[in-house]
Each structure stands twice: as structure tokens, then as C-alpha cells.
């Protein structure tokens, strides 16, 4: 992220989430692989990899098992939790740097074979600048991959949750997590369990967030609580249209670009930086 005050405040808010997360990694390898698709984790063998906005290192725990060297970049204080998690795992080819991703990219241009940024750009004051940092860090011939909240498919979240988030993000983290996110996680979890049992047709067309609820319904209540808190803790969130991402990718130094839907309410996108 940048040195902008709003971005720093956002990084610290997410540090509250990651420092108090229910697990060193809230993700399963199935989730991680789905996030990275169409890129196979096995394809990272021998690669120099960088995650921009690594949180507590949850995604890196799977990525590190396949990569030659890995660098996690994080602006918030939760980078210390990430370091501790990896010390316990005794993985010595992983390095962590506490820095905003724009400054990091300026200092490490074209250094990494694979750069990814999952769930970060949509929380930056200027998401496009964050995307440019991803490309800047990628080596010629290297690949990059990102994931962001979509504008499409999130009408319910944008209209109902966003007003609450603006208030909740100003509260102490513990009040936000246990007085707001926890009660909200209960109907969220129950809804996902109901939708998980519905057949796709005709409910896919009738139920808001059907694809997302189908996906998250496979995971336990603690993960639903984590996601609810994650939504409420951020001081700034942008929901990004597919056409906006397509414009970001429309540049002469990129090739093999793609934009793929995820769960009907978010976008995965990436490509290759031309040699």
C-alpha cells in the first residue's frame, strides 16, 4: 500500500484482523488452489515469488512449499505474526518486508518471476496504482495474478453492508469483531448452509450471492466469522468492475492476460509481462 494516511489506517485495521485470526492460516489448500487458478502451484517450482499484501502469511504457507524463494510484503504490524508463523514452520527460504507495496515495487523493479496480490487492491485508495506496482515488481517474462471484489454481483453487500462498515471500521477491533461481526456471522453461516443444499437451477438466478454462499458454505463457522469481521474492519473498500480491470490490462507490456469470475461476485485476473 502507499504512504497515504487512509491506506496506512487500512493496513492497521487489517492487522487487527490478522493478529486476532482464529488460525495461522484460515485457508485450506483447496481454497488456495482455487484462488490461484488458472495458475497451478506446481508451476511455481524453482520460481522467485512475491506476495504483495501478505497479512499473516496464510496464503504463503502453501505457496512456499512449491517455490524456490518467497518474499511477503506487508504494511501492517501483522507482518510480525507472519514471521513467527514461518519460524515455527522452519521454512528458511521465506523473507518478510514491512513496507507499502508501491515503495517496494519502486525498489524491486522486475525482480520476481511470479507476483500475486490477493484481496488487497480493492482496499487501497488507488487500486490502479496498486496494480501497476504488481506489474512493476514482475520480471520480464514473469507472471502476475490478482483477486479483487467485483462491482458486479455485490449489490446486496454494497447497499446493506457498506453503510454498516463505515461505522464499524471506526470502532475498537474487539467491539467490531464480537459485538457486530459475530452476531452477523450467525445468519451468514445459516444462509450458506441452506444455499449449499440447493440445486443450481433455478436458485442460482433467484438467490442473491448464490455462488458465493455455495462456496463458503463448505467451511466452518469460524471462517464465516473471520470473513464477516474482515468485511467490517476496513476503512475503505472499492468494488471493481470487469471493464475497469480490462482497461488496466490493456497495455503494450502485457500479454496472455485474462479476467475470470470467482463465485459470481469477484474477479481473478493476471497475465505475463512481455520479455
Describe this structure in words.
It contains 12 helices and 7 strands. A hairpin with a 3-residue loop joins strand 6 (254-262) and strand 7. The model has no long low-confidence stretch (mean pLDDT 94). The protein folds into 2 domains: 5-151 and 238-273, Vaccinia Virus protein VP39 (Rossmann fold, 3-Layer(aba) Sandwich); 155-233, no CATH class. The chain is globular. With 275 residues, the protein is of the alpha/beta class. A 7-stranded mixed β-sheet has the order 3-2-1-4-5-7-6, with helices on both faces.
Total beta strand runs: 7
Strand content: 15-25%
Taken from the alpha-carbon principal axes, the silhouette is globular
For the largest sheet, list the strands in their spatial order: 3-2-1-4-5-7-6
Rounded to the nearest angstrom, the radius of gyration is 18 Å
Give the SSE string: HHEHEHEHEHEHHHHHHEE
Q: Please, what is the average pLDDT?
A: 94
Features:
7-stranded mixed sheet; single chain; 2 domains; globular; alpha/beta; 275 residues; Rossmann fold
Which secondary structure elements does this structure contain, and how are they paired or packed?
Elements: H1 5-19, H2 29-36, E1 48-52, H3 58-63, E2 69-74, H4 79-89, E3 94-98, H5 101-107, E4 112-118, H6 127-137, E5 138-149, H7 155-168, H8 173-196, H9 200-206, H10 210-216, H11 221-233, H12 242-249, E6 254-262, E7 266-273
Parallel strand pairs: 1-2, 1-4, 2-3, 4-5
Antiparallel strand pairs: 5-7, 6-7
Helix pairs in contact: 1-11, 5-6, 8-10, 8-11
Amino acid at each position: 500500500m502507499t504512504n497515504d494516511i487512509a491506506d496506512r489506517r487500512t493496513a492497521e485495521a487489517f492487522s487487527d484482523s490478522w493478529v486476532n485470526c482464529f488460525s495461522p492460516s484460515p485457508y485450506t489448500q483447496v481454497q488456495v488452489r482455487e484462488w490461484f487458478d488458472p495458475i497451478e502451484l506446481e508451476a511455481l517450482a524453482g520460481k522467485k515469488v512475491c506476495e504483495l499484501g501478505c497479512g499473516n502469511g496464510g496464503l504463503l504457507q502453501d505457496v512456499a512449499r512449491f517455490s524456490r524463494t518467497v518474499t511477503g510484503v506487508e504494511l501492517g504490524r501483522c507482518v510480525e505474526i507472519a514471521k513467527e508463523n514461518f519460524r515455527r514452520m522452519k521454512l528458511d527460504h521465506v523473507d518478510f518486508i514491512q513496507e507499502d507495496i508501491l515503495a517496494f515495487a519502486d525498489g524491486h523493479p522486475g525482480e520476481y518471476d511470479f507476483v500475486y496480490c490477493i484481496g488487497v487492491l480493492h482496499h487501497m485508495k488507488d487500486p490502479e496504482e496498486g496494480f501497476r506496482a504488481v506489474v512493476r515488481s514482475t520480471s520480464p517474462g514473469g507472471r502476475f495474478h490478482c483477486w479483487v471484489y467485483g462491482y458486479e454481483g455485490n449489490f446486496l453487500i454494497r447497499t446493506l453492508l457498506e453503510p454498516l462498515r463505515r461505522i464499524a471500521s471506526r470502532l475498537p477491533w474487539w467491539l467490531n469483531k464480537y459485538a457486530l461481526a459475530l452476531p452477523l456471522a450467525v445468519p451468514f453461516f445459516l444462509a450458506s448452509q441452506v444455499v449449499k443444499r440447493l440445486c443450481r437451477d433455478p436458485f442460482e438466478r433467484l438467490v442473491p450471492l448464490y455462488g458465493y454462499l455455495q462456496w463458503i458454505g463448505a467451511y466452518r463457522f469460524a471462517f464465516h466469522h473471520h470473513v464477516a469481521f474482515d468485511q467490517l474492519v476496513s476503512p475503505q473498500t472499492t468494488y471493481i468492475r470487469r471493464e475497469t480491470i480490462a482497461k488496466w490490462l490493456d497495455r503494450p507490456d502485457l500479454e496472455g492476460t485474462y479476467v475470470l469470475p470467482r463465485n459470481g461476485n469477484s474477479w481473478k485476473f493476471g497475465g505475463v509481462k512481455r520479455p
